[in-house]
Amino acid sequence: MAKRTGNDLAPIDPGAIPDRKIVDLLEAGKVDEANELFDRIVSRPLTATTDRVALACTLVLRAVTAWRLGRTPIALELAAEGWTELEAGPVEGTNAAQALGRLGYLLDMVGRRSDALQITRRSVQVARDAGDPATLAHCLQRLGGGLNIIAMDADEPRRRRIYTEARQHLEEGLRLATEPRVRRALLGALARSTAGLGELDLAEQIAAQTVHSSTAADWYWGICVGQWVLADVCRQRGQPLRARTLLLDAARLAETIRDPILLQAIGLDLATVARQLLDPATEVAALRHVVAAAQRSAETLREGLGQALEQRRFAVKAKRLAEAAQRAAARDPLTGLANRLGLEQTAPVLINAAVTTGRAVWLVLVDIDHFKTINDIAGHSAGDSVLCEIAGLLAKQCRVGDVIARWAGDEFTVLLAAAPKERADIGTVVAERIRAAVDNFEWTLAAVAELRPTVSVGVAGGHTSLDALFTAADAALYEAKRRGRNRIELYPQELRQPAL
Known about the structure:
- The structure is a single chain.
- The protein is rod-shaped.
- About 45% of the residues are buried.
- It has 2 domains: about 20-310, Serine Threonine Protein Phosphatase 5, Tetratricopeptide repeat; about 340-490, Alpha-Beta Plaits (2-Layer Sandwich).
- It is about 70% helix and about 5% strand.
- It is α+β, with helices and mostly antiparallel strands.
- The chain has a 5-stranded mixed β-sheet with strand order 2-3-1-4-5.
- The protein is built from 20 helices and 5 strands.
- β2 (about 405-410) and β3 form a beta hairpin.
- The protein starts with 18 loop residues before the first helix and ends in a 10-residue tail after the last strand.
C-alpha cells in the first residue's frame, strides 16, 4: 500500500490514529491541515492485526479521505485493499458495517451508484445484526443520503418513492443517533428528502436547524447542505433571488470541503435559478462549478482506467513470464529438447488422442553407447557436443508431432503414434533411422570421431500408459546393450523381466 513503509516510524494500530479527524478537518474546510495529517498517518505502517475487518474499516476510511483530498491513485489502492479484506471472509460486526458504509460512499463518489447502493444497503443490514444503535444510525444516514442523490435524477413517481424511502431511513437514524455529528448529518439529509417531497415548511425548519447546529460546531458540510435545502425551498416558493444567494454560498462551501457530488448538484440548481433570473454571469459561474465537479469525476475515471490498464499490463506480463518459466522448466537447457517433465506433461495428450482414434503408440528409448568413455577421454565439453549433435539427428529423423525428449544424462526418448495409413511397425522404422543416422554421422571433433559414438535403442508399443511403455522400452534397451550395442531391440507387448 502506498506510503506504509519506514523503519524509523512506529507502526499504527487500526483506528489508533484519529483517521476520523481528517474527515472532520475536511468538512470544516481545513484542507491543508487534513493533507498534513493524512501524510503523517499513511507514512507509518499499520500494525499486523488478526482483526481483518477492523483493518478493512481503517483502509476504506483512508481511501475516502484520499479521494476527498484529490489523491486518486492512493484512494483507489487503499479502497482495493480494504475491499479485498472484506471479501476474504465473513463480514459481521460494527467495524464491518462501517467499512461497508464507507465503501458504498466511495463508490458513489466515483460514479458506481448501483454498486454503492447495494453495498450501503448491506451495511445497514450488518449494522442491524450487530445490534449497535450508533453504528446503525451512521449507516442509515449514508443510505438515506445516497437515495437522495438518486432521487434527484429520477422521474416522477419514482422520485417521490425514493425520497420517501430515504426519509424513513433518516428518521429511524435520528431516533437512534446520539453522536452530534451524525445527528447533524441525518438532519441535513432529512431536510433534503423532506424538500424533495414538497413539505416545504418542515424542510425549512429542519434545514435551518442543520445550519444553526453546524455553524455552532464550525462544520462546513452541514452548513452547505442546510443552505442548499433552504435554497430549494425558496426556489419552490418562487423566491429565486434568495435562492441564488443561498446557492452561491453553498457552492463556495462545497468547493471548500472538496465534495464533488454536492458541488455538482448545487451548481445545477444555481444554473437553473440564474437562468430564471436572466442572470447569465451567475449561470456561467454555476456551470463552471458543474464542469469542475464533472472534470473531477472524469479525472477519477481516467486515473482508475489508467491504473486498471497498468494492472492488466503487469498481469499479462506476469502471465507471460510464468508461462515462459513453465516452458523453461519443461525443456532441457543443453539440447533444447523437452526434458522429463516436458515429456510427462505432453505424453497423456498424445496417448489419449491415439487411443481415441484407434492408433498404436510407440516409445523409442535411445542410449549413447560408452558415453562415460567419451567424457573421460575427450572431455565434458566434447560430451556436451555429442549430446547436442544426437539431439539434432533425432529431430531430423522423427516426424512432425513426435515428442522428442532428453530423458536423463545420455538417454533420449521419442514418443510417437502411428498415422492411419502408416505401416504397423513405424516405431521400429523410426528407431532404425535414428540408429543409422548416428552410426553414419561424420563427427568433426577429432577426439569424438576416433571414438565414433553409436546408440543402442529399445522400442516398445501396444501400451496405453507412459509408465508401461517406458518399462517395456527399457527392457528392450537392456537387451540391445547385452547383444553388443549399436542396435535396436523390440520388446514384446507382454512384459517380462529380461534374463540377466
